[in-house]
Design a protein that fits this description.
Elements: H1 4-11, H2 15-25, H3 30-38, H4 44-50, H5 82-92, H6 96-101, H7 104-111, H8 128-141, H9 146-154, H10 175-192, H11 196-211, H12 241-255, H13 264-272, E1 280-281, E2 301-302, H14 303-320
Antiparallel strand pairs: 1-2
Helix pairs in contact: 2-3, 2-14, 4-5, 5-8, 8-9, 8-10, 10-11, 10-12, 12-14
């Protein structure tokens, strides 16, 4: 249950956010939230981003970076290229049929190449996070990404997680890379049912984070970084307690398991960041070029964070209270 003032504030939102409020917080029947979700492709954020797709199937002319991106002069990571645009459309709930009708999978297969060694788009590359997003977007759109899934199974590090810097010789997992890798594998398991091996590998990766209570290093017992308690939307690639617990909520619902008690301190960090009116404030957003803004500026109450924060606390409290 949420206060009427909070409910009205959240419902007065773009369809990309509103349908999730209706489903996850208000318990509306499927006929209600599915109707709202269907509007995402024709109204607001979703429609705007779909209109920016290039004729060759890409966004901004590139796979991970815009065409002719100059990293030496840019301020922050640009968020306009194909992978980031697909991530947004998928997370907002756009029906994959809309992009299939545009032959997006085929066009990207023909026209899009990774900036790393000019590798084909649906074959992935060497970065864990990039490969995870490609798996998630691929199973959503119906592309063949089984080869990338196998890559994940073969590149899990001895401590149980993943690290995008493995190619530079790193043998210790990263919170960021591990969470993003898990999210990609979860999308695969949810879409196709997974395999015994994908589920087992996902469990091992989850254990990497759970051993650390989602917050701490094993070696010192201290918080892994200030960023773990800094919540901003969109999450992009960055780890936070909120991003991680929302993953575990989805995994729990898919797997039919109870919330792991080792999430308790991360839940506490999320709860302590909630304001008296039930909202969460936006932390400093990721710098970099965007097509358009989808949330508020730093220090303002965020509807997206309030949706995500409320649903993870509700999930937890429904079990433990």
């Amino acid at each position: 249950m949420i206060a009427d003032s909070l409910r009205n504030w959240l419902v007065d939102s773009d369809p990309a956010l509103r349908w999730q409020v209706e489903r996850d917080l208000l318990g509306e029947p499927a006929t209600v939230w599915e109707a709202t979700r269907a509007r995402v492709a024709t109204e607001g954020f979703g429609a705007r981003l779909l209109a920016l797709q290039d004729p060759d199937g890409q966004w901004a002319g590139g796979a991970f970076f815009p065409a002719n991106f100059d990293g030496a002069t840019a301020v922050g990571q640009p968020w306009t290229a194909t992978t980031w645009s697909l991530n947004s459309l998928r997370e907002w709930g756009v029906d994959a049929a809309v992009l299939r009708a545009r032959r997006t999978v085929e066009l990207l297969d023909t026209n899009s190449r990774w900036e790393y060694e000019n590798l084909p788009y649906w074959g992935g590359e060497v970065d864990c996070c990039i490969n995870a997003w490609t798996v998630a977007n691929g199973v959503w759109l119906g592309a063949d990404v089984d080869g990338i899934v196998e890559w994940f199974l073969d590149h899990q590090l001895p401590d149980g997680g993943w690290n995008c810097e493995w190619v530079e010789g790193s043998t210790r997992s990263s919170f960021h890379s591990t969470l993003n890798s898990l999210k990609g594998l979860l999308e695969y398991d949810a879409a196709v049912g997974g395999t015994d091996r994908t589920r087992a590998v996902r469990r091992i990766g989850e254990e990497y984070l759970l051993e650390r209570k989602l917050l701490y290093t094993l070696s010192t017992g201290r918080r892994v970084g200030e960023w773990v308690g800094q919540f901003c939307y969109p999450f992009r690639w960055r780890y936070s307690a909120l991003n991680a617990v929302d993953y575990f909520r989805r995994a729990s619902l898919l797997d039919g398991t109870a919330p792991d008690p080792r999430l308790e301190e991360a839940i506490g960090a999320i709860r302590s960041a909630r304001r008296s009116d039930g909202s969460w404030l936006q932390a400093r957003p990721h710098p970099g070029e965007v097509w358009f803004e989808t949330d508020v500026s730093e220090g303002e109450p965020s509807k997206w964070l309030t949706l995500i924060g409320t649903r993870v606390l509700t999930w937890w409290d429904d079990y433990y209270r």
